Automatic annotation (TrEMBL):
Ranges where the Longin domain occurs: 7-110
GO cellular component annotations of the record: endomembrane system; SNARE complex
Principal cellular location given in the protein's record: membrane
GO biological processes: exocytosis; vesicle fusion
Membrane topology qualifier: Single-pass type IV membrane protein
Alphabetical list of Pfam families matching this protein: Longin, Synaptobrevin
Membrane is among the record's keywords: yes
Subcellular location: Endomembrane system
Molecular function in Gene Ontology: SNAP receptor activity; SNARE binding
UniProt entry keywords in alphabetical sequence: Membrane
Protein name: Longin domain-containing protein
PROSITE patterns: LONGIN (PS50859)
Coiled coil residues, start to end: none
């Protein structure tokens, strides 16, 4: 469930990109970029089993591709961090930069932030599974206790019946 691909563009001009796995992300991204209006926006497109999340601000587009199970809020946290880091590093230089001008320098940042997001997502999933297991163990424990109590009540009743029969002459 990681972020599969991330790209920073100015319109259709790719400034930096990173893919965590092989795929035709560049071609698909180009098709999506043609549909993005130049005004500031924050949206998610869905195509097949993939989600395309983007933030467009001052004609700079920060986009990532995830599978359809990835939380939208996490994708936008990632994109906001990328946007913050990109703006603080390049500022207005991004408005006139050539294609892939920032790729060598910024693609490791994209890769690092993708792995940070993956670790956070994995940690949260691990916590959810832990608490799910704890609830399951508590439930099973309560069922066992209830069964033992029912068994003990049955044994006690049988013993009382036996003793009462024994006392009769």
């Amino acid at each position: 469930m990681p972020i599969l691909y991330s790209v920073v563009t100015r319109g259709l001009t790719v400034l930096a990109k990173y893919a965590s796995c092989a795929g035709n992300f560049a071609e698909v991204t180009e098709q999506i970029l043609t549909k993005i209006a130049p005004e500031d926006a924050k949206l998610t497109y869905s195509h097949g089993s993939y989600l395309f999340h983007y933030i467009c601000e001052s004609r700079i587009i920060y986009m990532c591709i995830t599978d359809d199970e990835f939380e939208r809020s996490r994708a936008f946290l990632y994109l906001n961090e990328i946007k913050r880091r990109f703006k603080s590093t390049y500022g207005s230089r991004a408005e006139i930069a050539l294609a892939y001008a920032m790729n060598t320098e910024f693609s490791p940042v994209l890769a690092n932030e993708m792995s940070v997001t993956f670790r956070k997502t994995s940690r949260n999933l691990q916590r959810q599974l832990f608490w799910k297991n704890v609830k399951l163990y508590v439930f099973v424990g309560l069922v066992i206790i209830k069964k033992m109590r029912l068994f003990a009540d049955g044994v006690l009743q049988d013993m009382m019946a036996y003793l009462s029969e024994r006392e009769r002459p």
